[in-house]
Structures are given as structure tokens and as C-alpha cells.
Specification:
The protein is of the alpha+beta class. The protein is 30% helix and 33% strand. Helix 1 runs antiparallel to helix 2 and helix 3 packs antiparallel against helix 4. The N terminus is likely disordered.
Length: 247
């Protein structure tokens, strides 16, 4: 109970300090949020036991990593409804965790933001939203961060980026390979559907089977070369058909 209260205090202080960082964004480079945080709660409390400091427990093989983008990128994030612009962000897709690093001193360690408090964020011009489905309903999607590939009036497409780790034994020790994978989800009539094939789309939209078949036949090359773009285009096409039929 005592540890729980301490964690609550640390997280409350951190959220307040993020607000300070936003209000004083013009001097963000000069005033380190971590300096304030360290002075308030003490550096001894900045460790993995508090669920804050980001760690790298898995040694990757060359050219592989657990992130959406390996390096920190300048992006925007909505944290507890407050937007923070031009901050250092990294998306750990192995653990589905947003990592934040304050600019300034090299002592500023990267931290894992509390996922429940992150509304959405932008990295490399891609928007990721925190989807929190109703746990009482049996639906195809689970809670977590999803790329909002396309948001239409009737249909929206979301992409789940994730990686699976595989242990690799080398002469100098144990390493890990991170295999990148993607799942696609379509939101229609407030429901989420996992979609991978032409058959999946036809099952959701039986009135547009012919249109869907024509789309697949026309864009086979794009499906093979850039499936993300293909799926986005198909979602747009279906949204347009639904919009046209409602007029």
C-alpha cells in the first residue's frame, strides 16, 4: 500500500511537470523537465521498479530492434488530454509502449509513459491512437496503440504494428531477432473487424462484392508491393461507395 501511494505521487508529479514543460515550451531546451523531477522525487526513485525508466533487456542482433523507428524522433503527443509538441518520442512496438526522453543533460533517461494516459501521438508523420475497446464486448481488436491509416465518415482503417522476439544463439552469447508484423482492422458502424483478404471485406460489405473484386483485380501489383497503401486505398473506396449510397 505504501509503495502504491509513492507511485501515485511520482506519477502525479510527472504529469504536472509535463504541463510545466508545455507552458514553457519556448525554453524547453534550457530547462530540463528531468532536473525538476529528479530534485522532487530523488534520482534513487528513477528505476524500473517504479515502472518509469525504459530499459533494453534484450540484446538485438545487428540491424534489428524492437521499435517502430530505432532512434528518437521529434513528435507530438496528447497526454491526459494535454498536447505536447516537438518532444522526443520512440514507440516500442514489442511492448506497445510510448517512450519519452526530455532534451538536455545526458543524464535524462528515457521513460515509459503510462499507456492509459496517452491519448494519441505522432511519429514520422504517422498518427497512433490509443484504442480502448469495451472489455465486456467480444470484438476483434484488443486495447493498445494503432496507426490511424485512414479515417473516413463511414469506414476507418487501423494498422497494428508489432514485433515478435526470437532468441538467437551466437558465439559470444544470446541475442534476439525482432520480426516485424502487421495486422489490419476496419472500423465500421462502431465495430472493429480484422481484415486481411478479399474474402474478409466481402463478408463485411456483401452489397459491394463486385466492387471489391474489381478493386483487387485492378490493383494486384500494389497489393504485392505496398499492402499498407493498398488497404488504405480500398478503405477509401468502400467509404466512398457507402457515402454515395446514402445520398
Amino acid at each position: 500500500m505504501k509503495n502504491y501511494k509513492k507511485k501515485a505521487i511520482y506519477l502525479s508529479l510527472f504529469a504536472s511537470l509535463l504541463n510545466i514543460s508545455y507552458l514553457h515550451s519556448q525554453s524547453a531546451e534550457k530547462s530540463s523537465l528531468y532536473d525538476y523531477f529528479d530534485q522532487t522525487v530523488g534520482k534513487d526513485n528513477l528505476n524500473i521498479n517504479n515502472g518509469i525508466v525504459h530499459s533494453e533487456p534484450f540484446r538485438p542482433i545487428a540491424g534489428k530492434n524492437r521499435y517502430y523507428a530505432e532512434e528518437f524522433n521529434i513528435g507530438d503527443i496528447s497526454f491526459e488530454g494535454q498536447i505536447y509538441s516537438n518532444v522526443n518520442l520512440k514507440y516500442d512496438i514489442l511492448t506497445d509502449q510510448v517512450v519519452y526522453k526530455q532534451t538536455g543533460s545526458s543524464e535524462n533517461l528515457p521513460i515509459n509513459l503510462i499507456s492509459e494516459k496517452v491519448d494519441y501521438f505522432f511519429i514520422k508523420n504517422k498518427k497512433f491512437v490509443n484504442i480502448k475497446p469495451d472489455s465486456n464486448k467480444a470484438i476483434a481488436i484488443t486495447k493498445g496503440f494503432y496507426e490511424e491509416s485512414y479515417a473516413g465518415d463511414n469506414v476507418s482503417l487501423y494498422i497494428k504494428h508489432y514485433k515478435e522476439k526470437v532468441k538467437v544463439f551466437q558465439s559470444d552469447g544470446v541475442y534476439y531477432n525482432f520480426i516485424y508484423k502487421i495486422n489490419y482492422f476496419l472500423k465500421y458502424n462502431s465495430h472493429f473487424y480484422k481484415v486481411e483478404s478479399e474474402k474478409d471485406f466481402k463478408k463485411i460489405f456483401p452489397d459491394y462484392k463486385k466492387d471489391i473484386s474489381n478493386f483487387y483485380n485492378t490493383d494486384k501489383k500494389l497489393e504485392r508491393s505496398d499492402k499498407m497503401k493498398f488497404m488504405e486505398n480500398l478503405a477509401k473506396q468502400i467509404n466512398g461507395l457507402l457515402k454515395k449510397s446514402s445520398n
